[in-house]
Amino acid sequence: MNLFRRSVFTIVLLAISAIVTMAQTNPKPGYVIKNNGDTIRGNIDFRTNEKLSKQCVFWADGESGGMTYKPGDIEGFRFDNGGKYFVTRRLNVTGEPELYFAEFMVQGMMNLYCVAYNRDEYYFFEREDGEMAQLTNRAFLTTSSLKDEGEKLQEKKEQYGKVKVLLKDSWKAASEMNEKDLSRKQLVKVVRDYHNDVCTDGSSCVVYEYNEKSDKSKTHVKTFTGFAYYSTERTVKQDLPDESYHGGAFEMGLGVETEIERVMRGGSVELGIAYSPKTSFEHDVIDFLEEQEHINYHRLYGNK
Known about the structure:
Elements: E1 2-18, E2 27-33, E3 39-45, H1 49-52, E4 56-60, E5 67-69, E6 76-79, E7 85-92, E8 97-107, E9 110-117, E10 120-127, E11 132-137, H2 146-166, H3 171-176, H4 184-198, E12 206-207, H5 212-215, E13 219-234, E14 243-259, E15 267-285, H6 288-301
Antiparallel strand pairs: 1-15, 2-3, 2-6, 3-4, 4-5, 6-7, 7-8, 8-9, 8-12, 9-10, 10-11, 13-14, 14-15
């Protein structure tokens, strides 16, 4: 039996922690707006934009039970502290007009809404007279063919043309529309500039665009320690001995954990580095030749 020590440096590339907790929701303070205009305060389940476009799970203050609202059941809902604001709108996302909880981003001489669906983002520019144009930010898929990408490019050009026509009363806003920049920040700026150019009564443009910093996933730096046990066996050629290794190691490390509660309830993604300064293994070697001699002896002479 041989004993040896070595230092092990382990890089943990990605660990997804499906942390099961008692809390099955992600409640954040906010309020719902009923169809008659009344508001009710409470907590709203803060999920992905796509899930929020389909339903609002709400717990009113002082009530033990919750309610699930579909688009049309209420006028809208909003999270506190400059959070996301969703309103019921009938919009054409899949080819047929349907009711959605659309994220209300800007209100003024032109309104801006956004609906997340199937990894894509659908922006709707609504002028004061009700005229509307759509701009779709398609998600990039590695499986897309050249034909698919060509169709996306053609769709984008057609949509950009319609949006610019809608913005024609503001040269500044129309010139700011850039096919290469579909960021939320840029689109909000375009609509806000349109309002400032067109508005004649002095009314202000209301930007409901939420504070992105408050919406970002929380990230924590963490240290960790632990003990790991390793075991492995190796079988080599018939004329060589078999080997097995086993042993333990004390580990310590530094990592970063990012919450993904809007995607997976109680979930997080971790990236870290672990280091084992003193890792010891016991090396067991089976004396194959001695065992082989015993077997041959048994074959020749049998048991006595």
